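Figure 2 data, in text form.
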Amino acid sequence: MTETDFIVGPGKQEVVITRIFDAPRDLVFRACTDPELIPRWWGPGSLTTTVEEMNLRPGGMWRIAQRDAEGNHYVFFGIYREVTPPERIVETFEFGGMPGHGLLETDTFEDLGSMTRLTNRVVFQKAGDRDRMLQAGMKEEMVGTMDRLAALLASLTAWRRPVPVQ
């Protein structure tokens, strides 16, 4: 399994998360944009995730809800600014529980043949917002999310690989 790189520059407003997946770019892009697949990897595994809206086009809205075992409800939403399949997605991102602290997220899908490098650049409005997210466990949550995405991609690519004939 490859590692998730998590880069935080001192005093900056951004975090850059990079992971190489053992899956072709079109499949990684699909896993990140298919409302049927997103609940299988997005966010902590202890939460139930539902894609409530996903209008994958510039100006289109997205909205994802999560619920924990105690019934607490969390909502995340944003607007797509750029969608270039299967290369790039630029979107706003906001947590309903913290209005006014939105961020800009850019996902770049780099074709490495049978593998894909996914780079997630997250730019916060203020360095203080970024620091609060880091203190709240952003790194651990993102690494866990990337691990779940890698596991989903492995299960999706398993049926694509030829079975050796004996």
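Caption note: The domain at 5-158 is CATH 3.30.530.20 (Alpha-D-Glucose-1,6-Bisphosphate; Chain A, domain 4).
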